[in-house]
Amino acid sequence: MRDRQGGVETHEFAALVCAVGQLNRPQVPQIPGMEDFRGPLLHSAQWDPEIHDAKGRRVAVVGTGASAIQIVPAIVSQVESLTIFQRSPPWIVHNPNYHRRVSEGMRWVLRHLPYYAKWYRFQLFWGFADGLHPTLQIDPGWEHPERSLNATNERHRRAIIKHVEREIGDDPELLAKVIPDYPPYGKRILIDTHWYKALKQANVELVTTPIDHIDGGAIVATDGHSYSADMIVLATGFQARRLLWPMNVVGRGGRSIGELWGEDDPRAHLGITVPGFPNFFVLYGPNTNLGHGGSAIFHTECQVRYTVQCLLALRDGGIRTLECRQDVHDAYNARVDEAHGRMIWSHPGMNTWYRNRKGRVFANSPWRLVDYWSMTRTPDLRDFIVRAE
Prior knowledge:
By secondary structure, this protein is of the alpha/beta class. The chain has two domains: 152 residues, FAD/NAD(P)-binding domain; 172 residues, FAD/NAD(P)-binding domain, CATH 3.50.50.60. It contains ten helices and 14 strands. It has a five-stranded parallel β-sheet with strand order 2-11-3-4-7, with no helix packed on it. It starts with 15 loop residues before the first strand and ends with a strand. 30% of the residues are buried. The model has no long low-confidence stretch (mean pLDDT 93).
């Protein structure tokens, strides 16, 4: 590894657990003229509030995904103006409990009533993840595939639109800009953090014309319209397709993980182990992201439990290396791809970071939480090439 000064350090370990996740390297679009912008220009993940103060400024936010809908409501009352550049609108749901404080009664019950916290967590998982799983399945006989997947998905679509209409229905032009033209859950479902209320503020403009270039102190759209800005925030996501990059993890025979996966096709058994890379474990790896609700924390707990049991087998079982078998890895990924072929992210016309350039869904899990929990509950050492000391 390299230290902060660029020097090389060598360390030896019995196993390597990679816990950098999928969303850690900012995706920065290459907009002509960026280098000449006169004010602060930064990715949302690199925003240091001690350095980058938005108060009183004309701020441009590029993107309308999960980062943007948190940033915009938080700064809208502080800035002089806010211009938001949208490529495609997200589906945003109303959750009346999201901004409520946890009552003292609930805190007491969580602390003192045995098993209540676990039951409550299960109830949340079922209501906002596993219970929604059928909604993400494509009904080949559904008569409106351009807007939904099945009858339940259509009901969800109508319910979400009703919320949007309650918020901004008196502004038909704005309403037309924010209703997605793809089925619900096709991209990450977001929770309304007063996003629509922010869009209605007098100092906010939502721009749907693509960006052409940056000219000094302004963003210029492809229609030639110029939008002045003192500060630009790139809420443009992460380089999830280049999983583990820029690390250079080398396995048997000197082959690196980057060579194996290429630019955008990471694969792993259960999202955790990779053939040719003994004693190497990945947390939040390929096909373990959740696009239908649930909890990345719960998924990580499953992966950590599985990994720890493997490490215990290495320590206590007289085993020197565990290496995922190629046939086990390939069979698992075939099941993943087959399941995704029936789900929303493979629906015609979908364009999302969950898929690579060939259309394969590399990021998301196709399973229910309970299914993945069952798969990872106990490692099966028959899935590995086991080498003793």
